[in-house]
Design goal:
Elements (H helix, E strand, L loop, with lengths): L2 H12 L3 E3 L19 H12 L5 E2 L4 H4 L2 H17 L3 E8 L3 H12 L8 E4 L5 H8 L7 E7 L6 H4 L2 E2 L2 E2 H13 L9 E7 L4 H10 L3 E5 L9 H4 L10 E5 L1 H4 L10 H19 L7
Parallel strand pairs: 1-2, 1-10, 2-3, 3-4, 4-5, 5-8, 8-9, 9-10
Antiparallel strand pairs: 6-7
């Protein structure tokens, strides 16, 4: 089944555009890591299982697993397996991109049939078509990809806003995403070649939708990064479809604001609130 069609169907079935970033932070003096009494696997899986009724997908950020070595990569496998068992769409937040056989190997790693295989992966297109086409080729197998177009970090404009061809670089990338995905539009009117578009730039989000009318857009920046629900849904299509909105720390570490609850219980409350706020931000005619 076309990845975009499957994602759109799950969003309608669950009345949700919320996704969970399963990002177990590295414990430091200023940030929590794995809660006391928990293993890495137990913490991540408890959060995923608790949030499952409110979300349509899980998006583990690979850096937090790679940094923990073999233990971390084993935990990643368990998170992916659990997500699939719960019927959640799995998105590897890998931001991979290279050339030739290297990019093909990345595509096999995250969109193939191995231990790290997910339904979709995030991709960095900086190196051009050589970096992206090995991933695009996988959409025929029901996989999806989200190309970085306009990210939510404060310094993103250093390169993404640089004028080229009479417009900002990010618009050039958006136009290419639209081209790469044009041949794969499903019955939903959406393409499995999607984009990452930060919620912290809602004006750009509206422009991006004009440039990518068929793209499924993954929106980070909601919650801990400061974007509101209204900001997060700015890239929605006229019928309210075509977007999924990620929250990571605000869900995984919700227990820090409510120590009376277990991590999973607090995450569920936060996920339920997120889903409600996002649906409310869509106009009545755009209900997810």
């Amino acid at each position: 089944m076309n990845f975009a069609d499957r994602l759109a169907a799950e969003s309608r079935r669950k009345h949700s555009i919320a996704i969970l970033g399963v990002d177990p932070q590295l414990g430091t003096a200023t940030s929590a890591g794995v809660p006391k009494g928990y293993t890495l696997v137990r913490f991540c899986c408890e959060i995923v299982e608790a949030c499952a009724p409110e979300i349509v997908a899980v998006k583990p950020q690979l850096a937090f697993y790679e940094a923990r070595g073999i233990e971390g990569m084993r935990a990643l496998v368990e998170v992916i397996k659990l997500g699939k068992r719960l019927g959640l769409i799995t998105i590897a937040d890998a931001k991979r991109g290279d050339i030739g056989t290297t990019s093909a190997a990345y595509a096999e790693a995250y969109l193939g049939s191995g231990d790290f295989s997910c339904d979709a992966v995030t991709v960095n297109a900086y190196q051009g078509s050589d970096a992206t086409l090995p991933f695009v080729m996988r959409v025929c197998d029901g996989r999806g990809l989200f190309v970085l177009v306009r990210t939510s970090n404060p310094s993103s404009g250093e390169f993404q806003d640089v004028p080229t061809e009479g417009r900002p670089m990010w618009e050039v990338i958006a136009a290419r995403v639209n081209g790469w995905g044009g041949d794969f539009v499903g019955e939903s009117g959406l393409s499995p070649v999607g984009a990452v578009l930060g919620a912290t730039y809602p004006l750009h989000a509206r422009r991006a939708r004009e440039l990518m009318p068929h793209a499924t857009i993954l929106v980070p920046g909601y919650g801990a990064q400061g974007a509101s629900a209204v900001d997060a849904v700015a890239a929605a299509r006229s019928d309210g479809s075509g977007i999924i909105v990620n929250s990571s720390r605000a869900l995984m570490y919700a227990y820090l604001k409510n120590p009376a609850l277990k991590p999973g219980e607090a995450a569920l409350e936060a996920a339920r609130k997120m889903r409600t706020e996002l649906n409310a931000a869509l106009t009545p005619a755009h209900a997810a």
